[in-house]
Amino acid sequence: MGALLEVENLTVWLATRRGPQKAVDDVSFHVDAGEIFGLAGESGSGKTMTAMALLGLLPHAARTSGRAVFDGRDLLSMSAKQLRSVRGRHIAMVSQDPSTSLHPMLTVETQLTEHMRHHLGLGRSEARGRATELLATVRIPDPERALSAHPAQFSGGMRQRIAIAVALACQPRLLLADEPTTALDVTVQAGILRLLDRLRREQDLAVVVITHDLGVMSAVTDRICVMYGGRLAETGPRQDVLNQPRHPYTRGLLDALPHPEGGAAALRPVPGSPPPLGRVPEGCPFHPRCGFALPSCRTERPAPVLVGEAHTSACPPDPLGGAA
Amino acid sequence: MSVLLEATGLAVEYHRRGGPTVRAVDGVDLRLNRGEILGLVGESGCGKSTLGRAVVGLLPAAAGEIRFAGHPVAPLGRRRRPRQLRGLQMVFQDPYASLNPRRRVGEQIADGYLLGGVARAETVRRTGELLERVGLAADAASRYPHEFSGGQRQRIAIARALATDPSCIIADEPISALDASAQASVANLLVALVRELDMGMVFISHDLSVVRQIADRTAVMYLGRVVEVGPTQQLWSAPAHPYTRALIAAVPRADGAGVLPVELPGDVPDPARPPTGCRFHPRCPLARPECVRHDPPLVALSGDRAAACVLQNAGEPARPLGELDPAASPAQK
After folding, report:
1. In this predicted model, what pLDDT tens digit does every residue of A186-234 receive, in sequence order?
2. Best of A218, A244, A277, A286 to disrupt the B interface by mutation (most B CBs within 10 Å)?
3. Which listed residue, of A167, B77, B140, B301, carries a Cα 20 to 30 Å from A62's Cα?
4. A215 and B267: CB-CB below 8 Å?
C-alpha cells in the first residue's frame, strides 16, 4: 500500500526584510492511512510551516519547492481553487487554541454544517443529523442542545472537541493537529489523545500531530520525526526514537525532561537556544549546541542516514551509535 | 523549620456584576517553611493563581488571614508596600507582559534597590552582579527587554524580584511560556536561588512533572480547596486523594511505550455553583453515597501529609487508593 501523504524535499522560503529565508529545508517524510505521525521540535524548528505548506496556508510571498503528494496529487502545484476542494474536505486542521479557531458569534451547528453543505452538498436536516453524530463521536454531552450553543458556552477542552468535530465534518483522510493539547490541562489532554487514537482506529484517519511535548508523542504516535532549524534531525518508529535516540538533539530534548522517577537531581537543559529564522548556522544546524560536534560539523551539511529499520538520523558522526 | 508564609482559612471572592459571587479560593490553610519549595498544582480554574496573588497581597482576602514572617499581609493599595513585606515577591508567567518595554533592564531592576534605600551609584554595581547571578551578562542592564528571548526575559524578571532581597518568592507558572530547553534552565535557576539564598518558594504550575522534580512538598487544589498536601515523593508514589491520583495518571510519559494517559471524565464545575458534599464527587471513581452530602475537611495524616477525603482517617498513614478500587485496574476503560 502506498503512503497517503508523501512529502519529498519540501523547502519553504519566507519573505523577510533581509530577503527570502528558509523556514523549512529539504524535508521528506510519509504518512500512512490510519497512522499517527509526530512532528517534534522547539519553536522555530519549521514544524508548523511544514503543515501550513501542505494546506496552502503559507503567508503571502512565501515560496515552496519539492513535492507533497496526497492521494496521487501534488498539493504544492495545485491552484488555489483545487486546494480549496481538498482543504477541509480531505485534509483538515486543528490548531492550538480552540477559542480562536472557532467563530465566537456563530452557533456550533453553523460551524459544523457549513463544510458539509459546501463540500458534500448535504441538505439542512441531513447535515444537522450528521453534526449531532459528530458531536456524539467527540463525546460532547447532550449533542442536540450543544448544536444551538455558541463556543463561549463551553470549556476549553470541550471547545477543542468541537474544533475536532468541525475538522472531521467531511470525513477527511488526513488531520493536521498543531499543538492540539498544549493549551489544555493534562486531564483534558488525556481525553483528546484518546479521541485521536480512537478515530484513527475506527475511521482509518491519518493524523499528523505537531508538538514540542515528547510525552504526548510517546502516548499516541507510531512514528516520530524531530525537526531542528527547519531540517529533519531524526525520523523513526516511536520506541526507537524515544528509547534509543541517535541524534544528539533528540537526546538533549529527552534529557531536558523531568526524570520519570523524580528525585532531587537538577534538570539538564540543552545549552543555548534554537536559531531564529535566517540565522541557521552553516553545516549541521545543531552544531553550536552539540556536545559531540566535530570540526566537520561546522562545514558539512549532514544528510539523513539509515541507522536502523526505518530509522534515520542526520548526524553522520553518529556519536550515540554505540550506546544502543 | 520556621514557618515563612502561612495562610489560615483563606477565602478570595470575585464579584461579577449581575452574577453570583464566585469563591475562587474557599477556606485554604497552607504553610511554607523557610528554605522550602512548595509546588501548587491543579487544573485551570482551580484557584491556584488566585491563591498565589492573594498571599502576596495583590488580591484582598474575603476571609481568613495571611502572615508573612509573622506580619499580617494586607492587600496592596496605591501606597508603597510596607517595609516588612518587601521580602515577599512574585514572578509572573509572561515575561513579555511583566517587564516594562520602554525602560532599560537595569533601571527596572534598580527600582528594588532604591526602595530598599541603596544609594543610586551603588545600584549599578549591584544590578550587574544580580544579572550575572541569573546567568546574564552585566551589560544587559543597558538594554531593553525586547532585545532578549523569552527565557532571558524571565531571568530578568527573576533578577528584579531578587533586588529587594526577598525571603519568599511566589512564582506563578514561571516557565510555562518558555521553550522546552529554556524551561529546564529557568527551573534550575529558581531552585538554585532558593537553596543558596535560603528563601522559600511557592511554585504554581500545571506541569506536574516539573513540580515532581523540584518541589519538596506539593499541594493539590481542586475547585478552590486544597485536597491534598504532602512531601512530593510520597504524594506521587501513593496519592491519598482520588483527584491527585487522576492528575498523575493523566500525565503522558516520554518513555516510548505508547501508553495512552488515563482520562478523568468531566470538567471542573463552575466555582459559582460548586457541587454539594465533596466537590470532587461527580468525577470521582471512588465516590461513595455519603460523598454527595458530606464535605470532607482537610485532615492531617501521619508523615506530614494531609488529605480531604472520606477514605482517609485523621492521624493514620495514608491508605493506598489502589486496594479501594471497585474495579480491578483503573487503567482499564
Report:
1. 888 898 899 999 999 999 999 999 998 999 999 999 999 999 999 999 9
2. A218
3. A167
4. no
User: How far apart (Å, rounded) are the C-alpha atoms in residues A284 and A314?
Assistant: 8
B107-155 confidence digits (pLDDT tens)? 999 998 998 888 989 999 999 999 999 989 999 999 999 999 888 999 9
Q: Which residue in A158, A238, A268 is closest to B184 by CB distance? A: A268
Query: Structural domain boundaries of chain B?
Result: 3-76+84-215, 236-333
Please give the ipTM for the structure prediction.
Answer: 0.83
Q: What is the CATH number of the domain that holds A214?
A: 3.40.50.300
Q: A228: domain range? A: 1-33+40-90+175-182+205-259+269-324
Nearest by CB: A155 against B210, B247, B267: B267
**Rounded CA gap, B145 and B152, in Å?**
9
* Single-letter code of the amino acid located at B33: N
User: Which of chain B's residues have a Cβ under 8 Å away from the Cβ of A221?
Assistant: 258
Q: For residue A74, tell me if it sits in a domain.
A: yes
A58: which residues sit within 8 A by CB, 6+ positions away? A12, A14, A49, A52, A64
Q: Select from A218, A221, A269 the Cβ nearest to the Cβ of B181.
A: A269
Whether residue A313 lies inside any domain: the answer is yes
| C-alpha cell of residue B120 | 543610586
Number of domains in chain A: 1
List chain A residues with CB under 8 Å of B206: 185-186
Contact B50, B225 (CB under 8 A): no
Sign of CA dihedral A135, A140, A143, A147: negative
CATH superfamily of B3-76+84-215: P-loop containing nucleotide triphosphate hydrolases (3.40.50.300)
Segments of chain A with pLDDT less than 70: 1, 260-265, 322-324
Q: What is the number of other CB atoms lying within 10 angstroms of the CB of residue A133? A: 11
Reading the block at residue B216, the C-alpha cell is 519538596
Helix or strand (DSSP H, E) at A47: helix A47-55
Q: Cell digits for B169?
A: 518568592
